[in-house]
Amino acid sequence: MSGVQNATTQPVQCIQASVSGSPGLSTSNPFRTRSDVVVGDLISNEDCLFLNVHVPSNVERGAQLPVVFWIHSGGYDGGNNSAFPVQDFVKQSNYGVVSVQVQYRLGLFGFMPGQQVKDGGDLNVGLLDQQFALQWVQDHIASFGGDPQKVTIWGQSSGAGSVLQHIVAHGGRTNPPLFRATIMSSPFLPFQYHYNDPIPEMLYAEVVAQVNCTGSSDTLACLRAANASDLVQADTAIGSANFLGTYTFVPVVDEEFIVERPTETLNRLQVNGETLLAITNSHEGDLFVNATAVTSANLTLAEYVTQLFPRLNHTQVQHAVGLYSRIGLQTVVEQAEAVMGDSIFVCPAYYALEGYGRGGWKGEFAIPPGTHAEDLSYEFITFAIRPTYNNTAFINAFSESFMSFAISLDPNVHVDPSDIKPTWATWGLNSTEMLFNKTESGVPVVQPFETDAGLLERCQ
């Protein structure tokens, strides 16, 4: 693009699944509940690959400020830049950072799997959009007062899952480096299949059938010729029918950008970036388990685990049932919520910490109800949904941890001297985390604790 880009309004959002004309994810999908906030009447378009840059008003070219690069959430199927006021980071850092946010292709437009896509196109193009934006930052952020050598990438939910993908990209050996540090808030990591495994191939075949391309000699060419509206309809139908909203169009192992399952790369301590700050919530899985559906179907925990992870064998399923049957949760719904939260959001944070040699920081956000995305109201000071616990000392202690980390690679270097947070040790050999909670009487609780050994066992 040449000339001047009008940046006085938010860009159009990327095409995404919709229900009854509402933008975003299926109304049955819990990713929509908080993290996919719609701001105004946003238009969806395939021409959507925009990024926003926010700088302090008095910044000068060559200021070399640290850069916070935000990747939005939405289950890889929805979301946009508008919902996340990353200009807040500039103020929260005492005007000490430049913030960038990126939009990327979503749903089947960004994450269509299958052998046909591999042979005739590119896999994981939503991730490649993000990578291209990171390369743009390396080339151009100095013109906005940012330092390309001090980039921290941060995301929440699928945005944090995207961060994890970039941590392991190219086997953890991306060259030249695109960032120095990473922040993950509730990293969304469903099981990552190889691009041509049976389930991704079934997903591709379902798209082909939905768009009436089954009889075509070249199904990929047929899909490319289809109207975008027909593809959106297919995206919506598949996402709505998905088992409790946990697997639709998500990253796959493509053997080029993502060369193997992320856990394999992390187990070898091969990572991009120098260090990590990871936050998870105390009840991540609660929104993702349809209690009515589980109860009415009279599902056992074994049946739930089998549906969530269809590749597990009987022995593995029974082992999981044994682990979650002895942690004090009485009902199948409660146990299913724990399985969902641990396996898809909480354990990936620990896998990543292990990948960095336990040298990063780990925190838990537990302000009731502690469900997925509750922390967003405390990370963005002008987020559309306001904090339920509106305590200034707590909010500052929590939110400024991220800016301290982005600026100094250490959440203990206080941006605000009134920060009530005690010394935050790295996760390290003692598995020390920082708890962010409150007492029943409303007093902030910001204190270290040791990761539950039982949780770490379940993550294995």
Write a concise synopsis of the structure shown.
This protein is an alpha/beta fold and 460 residues long. It has helices at residues 87-92, 107-111, 115-120, 125-140, 158-172, 198-210, 219-225, 228-241, 262-267, 291-296, 301-308, 314-324, 332-355, 376-379, 392-408, 453-459, and strands at residues 13-14, 44-45, 51-54, 65-71, 98-102, 146-156, 181-185, 275-281, 361-365, 432-438, 444-450. A hairpin with a 5-residue loop joins β10 and β11.
Provide a descriptive summary of the structure in words.
It comes from Bondarzewia mesenterica. Belongs to the type-B carboxylesterase/lipase family. It holds the Pfam family COesterase. Residues 2-434 form the Carboxylesterase type B domain. With 460 residues, the protein is α/β, with parallel strands linked by helices. It has a single domain, classed as Rossmann fold, CATH 3.40.50.1820. The protein is built from 16 helices and 11 strands. The chain has helices at residues 87-92, 107-111, 115-120, 125-140, 158-172, 198-210, 219-225, 228-241, 262-267, 291-296, 301-308, 314-324, 332-355, 376-379, 392-408, 453-459; strands at residues 13-14, 44-45, 51-54, 65-71, 98-102, 146-156, 181-185, 275-281, 361-365, 432-438, 444-450. The protein has a 9-stranded mixed β-sheet with strand order 3-5-4-6-7-8-9-10-11, with helices on both faces. It has a two-stranded parallel sheet with strand order 1-2. It is globular, with a radius of gyration of 21 Å. It starts with 12 loop residues before the first strand and ends with a helix. Residues 19-40 have low confidence and may be disordered.
